[in-house]
Amino acid sequence: MKTIRQRVRYLTASDGTRLAWADAGEGPLVVKAANWLTHLEYEWESPVWKHWIQFFSSNFRFVRHDERPLARVGPREAGAV
After folding, report:
1. pLDDT band at 81 (very low <50, low <70, confident <90, very high)
2. Which of 3, 23, 24, 40 has a CA positioned 20 to 30 A from the CA of residue 10?
3. 62 contacts: CB under 8 Å, gap ≥ 6
4. CA terminus-to-terminus distance, the chain
5. Nearest Cα to Cα of residue 72 among 16, 21, 14
6. Cα torsion through 50, 53, 56, 60, rounded to 10
7. Which residues, 6 or more positions from 66, have their beta carbon under 8 angstroms from its beta carbon?
8. How far apart are CA 59 and CA 77, in angstroms?
9. How far apart are CA 58 and CA 67, in angstroms?
């Protein structure tokens, strides 16, 4: 089984909010709706979601996103709290 890695990227919404999204795998597109507590990196390793993410990423281009207001808004800048 080959190792699949997710690519986390950021976009800026029309209101200026930066939001994170990730994709992994190749093939037909499947987009996962965000759930009540979404964190792209934690979800990738989660015992609850990991097997689903691996399945979909092995067979499709699997796209996930952070939901507002829990969104990961981008890498913190040095010195930011």
Report:
1. very low
2. 3
3. 23, 24, 25, 30, 32, 53, 56
4. 40
5. 21
6. -140
7. 19, 20, 21, 34, 38, 39, 40, 72
8. 36
9. 24
0.90 exceeded by pTM: no
> Structure tokens of 22?
């990730």
Are the beta carbons of 24 and 53 closer than 8 angstroms? yes
**Cα dihedral sign for 29, 30, 35, 37?**
negative
Query: For 18-57, how does the pLDDT look when each residue is reduced to its tens digit (9 = 90+)?
Result: 888 999 999 999 999 887 777 888 889 989 889 999 999 9
